[in-house]
């Protein structure tokens, strides 16, 4: 019984290291990216409407990517919607890719360690 407890304490990761390898929540990261992107486009459009800087940014070019977007009050909401959608997809994909890479790396590393331990075991037979 004590051998199992000893093995568990050896394989346990310190909390700081465990946080490094913990998977990211795809939905939460997507919503965070989407919120930042949506608010960025909305605030930029609203500021452009209120301040009217010279020389002005060509914000109307966003209409090529975001259907229905114009530099207007309606464009603030349309821009927020489309930027939120794009940010949501981008954040979800970033979290998915990071989780996949970390899981694959851990799987390969653990497999190599187990293979090395088995190889040593077979040498003693």
Question: Please, could you describe this protein's structure?
Answer:
With 125 residues, the protein is mainly alpha-helical. It has one domain (26-123). It has helices at residues 2-11, 15-21, 26-51, 73-123. It is rod-shaped and about 80 Å long. The mean pLDDT is 88.
Please supply descriptive tags for the structure shown above.
125 residues, mainly alpha, single chain, 4 helices
Overall residue-averaged pLDDT value: 88
Low-confidence residue ranges: none
Q: Which sheet architecture does the biggest sheet show?
A: none
Total number of strands: 0
What does this entry show, briefly?
This protein is an all-alpha fold and 125 residues long. The chain contains four helices and no strands.
Fold blueprint:
Blueprint (H helix, E strand, L loop, with lengths): L1 H10 L3 H7 L4 H26 L21 H51 L2
